[in-house]
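Sorry, I am new here, but would you mind making up a protein's amino acid sequence and the tokens describing how it folds?
***
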Amino acid sequence: MIVIHLDVMMAKRKMSLNELSEKVGITLANLSILKNNKAKAIRFSTLDAICRALDCQVGDIMEFVPDEEE
């Protein structure tokens, strides 16, 4: 599964959800869904805008974590 660490990077950059929403151009609701790992997909253009706004790499906000087999 892909885990989103958007909240960590926002904290490092001292940026609020409102401020990031304005810089990226997506709604607070959609940004919140992404931040809380509820999103099923993300557009590359949105990912690009987030990385530009936070001055980070994709790997700084996304991580692959293998699913645990039962």
About this structure: The chain has a mean pLDDT of 93. The longest helix spans residues 44-54. Strands lie at 2-4, 62-64.
